[in-house]
Every structure is written in C-alpha cells, then in structure tokens.
C-alpha cells in the first residue's frame, strides 16, 4: 500500500526532523599516541626519555589523528615538501617520491618506454637492482665493462650498442661520477634514453650539474644504507613532463596524483596498468630532514677527501681511482689500485695492521651482488614463471647477450686489485693527516714514491 503524503512529508529531506542527531560512541583517532611511542622506541631513546615523552603527550587531543599516506592529506604533506626541496637541491624540474631506489629504477624504465624487445646497457659493477629492474620491466640487460673510475666505460658502451638498444644506465658508484659527456654523446647519436642511477652518489656533481639531472631521468635511493637518506625511499627526477606523468602513473595505478582521478587520459600514454610504489608520509618526513642536512654533509665529506689526498704521496705502480670531477666527487670512499690482486691483498693486510679499515673489493670471495658474476638470476636467465619472460619474448628476435661469469674481464681484474677505505665526514684535518701517514707508510714499504707529483696527477696507462 503506498505511503501517504502526510508520512512522506515527515522525511528530513522534505523538511521533517532528522531521525539521527547524535551517537554515544566516543570519537578516537585511528592513529594516536601509541604509534608515536613506538617510533620513540625505534629512535633509541632511553626508557626515562620515553616515559617523559609519554607524560608530555598522553593527554594531547589529536583530533582525527595523523594522515600517513601522501595523497588526500588534510595536513601539509611531507612527501610534497620532500619533492619540492629535492627538486630545488638537484636542480630538476620534476621529482617524484617512491618507496625505494629499486622502485625508482623500475618506474623510470617504464616511464621511458623500456619493455619487451628492448636492450638496456648497465655496468658490470653496480648493485643488482640496476639490472634486475630492467628484467622486471620485461627488457634485456646488456652488461658493460667499467674503467678505473669504477663506473661504466663509455668505450665499451659504444661497442655494445645494437639495433635493440633502448637505454644506457650510467651508475655513479660509491660517490664517484660517471664520464657523462661521452655517454650523452652516444645517446644523442643513437637516439637512446639515459637513466642515471644515483643510488650511491646523491648530491654528486659533474661539471657543476647534479648527477641525476644530466640524463633523461635520474633515480635515487635515499635509504639507511646510502649517503643521504634513512629507512627505505627513492626519488625519480626528470625535466620532461611526459616522462614525469608516466612515472606518476606507474608509481600509483590508482591515479591519486591526477587533478581528476577518474577522468579520461589527458595525453596518449598517460594511463596504463601500473603499481603502488607511493612513498608514505613517515618516510617523507624522515627524508625531508635528511635532504635538509645534505648540503652541509657534502661540504664536510668533500673536505675530508681533499684533506686526505693532500697528504698522500703517489707511488710507482699505484693508480688512484679516476675522479673526473674532484669538486663534484662525494668522497666517502677512498680507492686506489695495486698492480696485481696478490699485491692488493698484501697492501690491505698491512694497512689493517696499521689501524686502517682497508679491504680489497673482492676480498674473501663473497657472493657480492654488486659484481655481475654473481647475478645468476641474469646469467642463467631465470624467470618468475616457466614461460621464461623476458628471455623468451617473441619481440626480442635475436640471440641473447653472451652471458657468462667471465664476460667482463676488465671489471673483475680491476675489482680484484682495488683497495677501498671508508671516510667519515667527521674526520678532522689531523685525522686525515694521520690516516694519510699510515697509507704512506705502507706504500713506502712496497713501492717507490714519485717525486714532484700530487695524488690525482697519476693516471692509468691507456
């Protein structure tokens, strides 16, 4: 039986009183004091300090509580602030925050159109993620030699460019910049994308320009294990709006980043099936603070490196790591090469006995995933599924690269006789003088000093 007009008029929408005016349930934030106290414990405060913090904040009215995701945040977003300040620091038009350096690489590769049928040239000395993300993007990594800078050798890159080459990935290893001019010339000549991997050199510069802004895209890991950063986080930098928009899509397939999330695409290639690599507000806050510390840290670290080498004596048959831009070098690792692997081991042992934390890159024969010969995932063309993608991809209609443990002998030889010493940014000038004295003492015992030359005057023979 139909409702009468009199009953219908009682609906609030028709002017009647609302049926529900209040609830007894108390309003409590989902995220409150307890989560903050867990962070205080994680930071390592003493029990006394933690109790004081708790007593101070326990009665604080948090309202709805913090919003810890980046998008739709009612408070000023820490991730937004990180992107803006990182862009200013790097000198890049766009910076996109993601949740790791590896996700930054994959996001950049996908944004650049790297995929089935493509080859990407990577160095033989880099963390495995540089190459693994190529495979995740369904492309084929081609592994190139390094030179005495411990970064990719442009001459070997040139030799390995082929009809399927889509991109070059120079990696600025252990704070040392790649030789970017010849790499960019090769890219221009062959119409290739350059994706810089700056995971280990955030803040480094090449001829006055921040690394990561020289190529088409720059990828950064800003994590606990890197020079700048804490936790797990990454950045993608570019000056190209289309690459930036495609990177946004891949990092957030829910399209929260779009002005109208559910609208039709604004340009071809804007929307596709991506993933969720978004950075949380927690990581954004921590790494915003890290980036604000970066300029002063770089000044200290570079001065330590320069102080050390100013006190070093060059010696016969000892080759310094090639630092192409001393002013742009981060300088948290000091490296030189002995004439042979056995001699490198003897020198490292002698340095350790003098109190110097020195070691050979390949010491102990550890399965170091920074060295290509241990990338069995690639050398053996392993795949997550039995179909074998991307190694069996029909779009890749040529023989696979000749993967083998000895395919880059120059890289293995350099690492076998390379000696590295970590340098703290807090070393005083006197610390550097003493450290250099210990190094000089050991080198004097095994090699003849070279008079009238400074450390970086010594170059490898071609």
Are there runs of 5+ residues with pLDDT below 50, and where? none
Assign an overall shape: globular
CATH class of the largest domain: Alpha Beta
Strand content: 5-15%
Q: What series of H and E elements makes up the topology?
A: HHHHEHEHEHEHEEEEEHHEEHEHHEH
Mean pLDDT over the full residue set: 94
CATH homologous superfamily identity of the largest domain: Type I PLP-dependent aspartate aminotransferase-like (Major domain)
What is the CATH topology of the largest domain?
Aspartate Aminotransferase, domain 2
- How large is the count of helical segments? 14
Alpha-carbon Rg, integer? 27 Å
Distance between the termini: 98 Å
Helix content: 25-40%
- The CATH architecture designation of the largest domain is 3-Layer(aba) Sandwich
Write down the domain tally.
3
Provide a quick synopsis of the model:
The chain is 34% helix and 11% strand.
Structure explained in plain terms:
This protein has 462 residues and is of the alpha/beta class. 34% of the residues lie in helices and 11% in strands. Strands 1-9-8-5-4-2-3 form a seven-stranded mixed beta sheet, with helices on both faces. Helix 2 packs antiparallel against helix 3, helix 5 crosses helix 9 and helix 10 packs across helix 14. The N and C termini lie far apart (98 Å).
């Amino acid at each position: 039986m139909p409702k009468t007009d009199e009953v219908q008029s009682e609906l609030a929408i028709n002017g009647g009183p609302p049926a529900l005016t209040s609830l007894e349930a108390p309003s409590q934030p989902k995220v409150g004091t307890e989560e903050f106290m867990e962070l205080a414990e994680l930071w390592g405060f003493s029990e006394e300090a933690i109790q004081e913090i708790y007593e101070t904040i326990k009665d604080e009215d948090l309202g709805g509580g913090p919003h810890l995701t980046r998008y739709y945040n009612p408070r000023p977003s820490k991730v937004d602030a990180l992107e803006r300040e990182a862009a200013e620091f790097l000198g890049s038009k766009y910076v996109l925050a993601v949740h790791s350096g590896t996700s930054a690489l994959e996001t950049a590769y996908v944004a650049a159109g790297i995929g089935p049928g493509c080859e990407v040239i990577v160095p033989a000395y880099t963390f495995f993620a540089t190459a693994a993300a190529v495979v995740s993007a369904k492309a084929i990594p081609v592994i190139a030699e390094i030179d005495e800078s411990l970064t990719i050798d442009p001459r070997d890159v040139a030799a390995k460019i082929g009809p399927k080459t889509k991109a070059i990935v120079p990696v600025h290893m252990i704070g040392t910049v790649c030789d970017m001019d010849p790499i960019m010339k090769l890219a221009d000549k062959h119409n290739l994308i350059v994706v810089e991997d700056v995971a280990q050199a955030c803040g480094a510069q090449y001829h006055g320009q921040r690394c990561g802004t020289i190529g088409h895209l720059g990828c950064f890991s800003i994590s606990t294990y890197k020079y700048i950063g804490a936790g797990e986080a990454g950045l993608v930098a570019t000056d190209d709006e289309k690459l930036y928009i495609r990177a946004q899509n891949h990092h957030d397939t829910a399209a929260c980043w779009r002005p109208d999330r559910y609208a039709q695409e604004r340009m071809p290639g804007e929307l596709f099936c991506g993933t969720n690599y978004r950075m949380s507000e927690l990581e954004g806050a921590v790494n915003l603070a890290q980036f604000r510390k970066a300029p002063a840290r770089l000044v200290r670290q570079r001065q330590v490196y320069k102080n050390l080498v100013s006190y070093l004596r060059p010696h016969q048959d000892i080759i310094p790591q090639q630092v192409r831009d001393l002013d742009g070098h981060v300088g948290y690792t000091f490296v030189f090469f002995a004439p042979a692997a056995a001699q490198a081991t003897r020198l490292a042992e002698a340095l350790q006995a003098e109190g110097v934390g020195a070691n050979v890159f390949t010491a102990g024969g550890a399965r170091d995933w920074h060295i290509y010969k241990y990338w069995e995932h690639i050398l053996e063309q392993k795949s997550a599924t039995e179909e074998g993608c991307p190694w069996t991809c029909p779009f890749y209609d040529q023989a696979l690269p000749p993967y083998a443990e000895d395919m880059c002998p120059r890289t293995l030889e350099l690492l076998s006789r390379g000696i590295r010493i970590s340098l703290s940014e807090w070393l005083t000038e006197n610390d550097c003088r003493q450290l250099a004295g210990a190094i000089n003492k050991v080198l004097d015992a095994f090699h003849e000093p070279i008079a009238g030359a400074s450390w970086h005057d010594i170059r490898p023979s071609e």
